[in-house]
Design a protein that fits this description.
The protein has helices at about 1-10, 15-20, 20-35; strands spanning about 40, 60, 65-70, 85, 90, 100. By secondary structure, it is an alpha+beta fold. Strand 2 and strand 3 form a beta hairpin. The longest helix is centred in the N-terminal third of the chain and has 12 residues, at about 20-35. The mean pLDDT is about 90.
Amino acid sequence: SCMGQAAINSMALPPVLFAGSPEVQAMVVDDVIAGRKNISLAISEPFAGSDVASIRTTAKREGDNYRISGQKKWITGGHVADYLTLAVRTGGAGGSGVSL
């Protein structure tokens, strides 16, 4: 439903608002707020479920970009998402090694 996706957008957009680069914000924010595009949270994984501290998907810097390697599963609203906010491992073990 439209209202259901609006709730998902409200959970997945804040990391873009607070930590996204100006380029990503320009590409994503206005369209999501206006309801023209959708964004979802991609956190759960086949082996970690929703235990964020145990995720295995990694993000490795390659020049100005990141290479994402891993699997996500059970993404609420993922079937209509234009963008995803990913939880990825950028550091060591545990929750402090996870970034959005």
